[in-house]
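[step 3/7] inverse_fold.run input=structure_tokens len=338
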């Protein structure tokens, strides 16, 4: 494991925080980035942890701006740290195609994010067993892009020095992978778990796809309400009712079988309100609503909308009307982000 090499495409919060953990696991980290990102990466990255409130330096990585610069480098893993919408753009697609040509004859596994895994496989022209869906399960953000409200016991002086702020959501899990292809998932988890900081978890694809609607519908409701605190959304019974019906419609799709029908019975406005209030507390001292406004209301908004469209299309292909999801999606697509 100490000799593993990982290429990370993109050096935003996801790429840097994951790269830091993989370096702690003994891997050599290389970044493939746009030229404009090089000046910021030329100096060590200081990561502020909202768990121990300390600065953690991250350096000793290499940076490249083109696939040609990689030369004869052989990688065990290529992590595409781009959101789904960016990943499917023309520039990223061309880059992935070139990168696919460079690694096709090697044994490298590729990790693509939600909404981007299948596109990575197709653009890179790799076999299905070489590409796994995986994503960071931590909150992470670049401090030069947003200033979040400060809550105790945040060390304001140390955070001001940081390039990245991050926090595990809970249970010391920092990364999630889908269970298929099994070889790729197990290999990446084995490496990540050596970090000594957090662990990766592997989830069945069917379970992940069943719970995606709960998350993206929740983000849609918060956006439609203007990204308030959880207590404000909890008071909007009508919106929570619409959201809970949309989630039920998704969970009851045929591919989720009996377990989906049973779990849908637990979804309701009251349960959703309680879950949001609990999640808000788990994120502290990070302001959950402010982070979501920045991240889900901006950076990955198009990815989330596409995930909802995919759920809708899946339902309609199976003859389901999906009225609640239709209404929610129409409201969200018509909404102008603040």
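[step 3/7] decode complete -> sequence:
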């Amino acid at each position: 494991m100490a000799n593993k090499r990982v290429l990370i495409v993109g050096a935003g919060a996801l790429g840097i925080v994951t790269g830091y953990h993989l370096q702690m696991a003994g891997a050599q980290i290389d970044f493939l980035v746009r030229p404009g990102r090089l000046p910021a990466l030329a100096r060590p990255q200081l990561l502020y942890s909202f768990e121990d409130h300390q600065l953690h330096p991250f350096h000793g990585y290499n940076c490249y701006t083109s696939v040609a610069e990689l030369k004869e480098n052989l990688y065990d893993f290529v992590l595409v740290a781009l959101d789904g919408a960016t990943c499917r753009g023309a520039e990223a697609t061309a880059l992935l195609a070139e990168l696919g040509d460079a690694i096709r004859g090697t044994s490298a596994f590729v990790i693509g994010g939600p909404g981007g895994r299948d596109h990575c496989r197709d653009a890179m022209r790799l076999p299905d067993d070489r590409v796994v869906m995986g994503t960071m399960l931590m909150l992470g953000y670049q401090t030069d892009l947003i200033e979040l409200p400060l809550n105790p016991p945040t060390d304001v002086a140390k955070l001001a020095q940081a390039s990245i702020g991050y926090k595990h959501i809970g249970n010391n899990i920092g990364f999630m992978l889908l269970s298929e292809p099994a070889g790729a998932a197990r290999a990446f988890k084995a490496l990540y778990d050596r970090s000594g900081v957090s662990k990766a978890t592997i989830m069945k694809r069917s379970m992940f796809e069943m719970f995606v609607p709960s998350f993206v519908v929740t983000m849609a409701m918060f956006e439609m309400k203007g990204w308030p605190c959880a207590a404000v959304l909890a008071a909007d019974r009508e919106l929570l009712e619409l959201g809970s019906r949309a989630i039920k419609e998704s969970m009851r799709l045929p591919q989720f079988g009996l377990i989906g029908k049973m779990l849908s019975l637990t979804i309701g406005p009251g349960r959703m309100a309680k879950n949001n209030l609990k999640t808000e507390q788990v994120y502290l001292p990070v302001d959950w609503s402010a982070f979501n406004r920045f991240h889900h209301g901006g950076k990955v908004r198009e990815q989330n909308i596409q995930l909802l469209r995919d759920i809708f299309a899946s339902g309609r292909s199976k003859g389901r009307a999906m009225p609640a999801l239709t209404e929610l999606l129409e409201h969200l697509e018509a909404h102008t982000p603040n």
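[step 4/7] annotate
The first helix runs from residue 13 to 24.
The CA atoms of residues 175 and 212 lie 16 Å apart.
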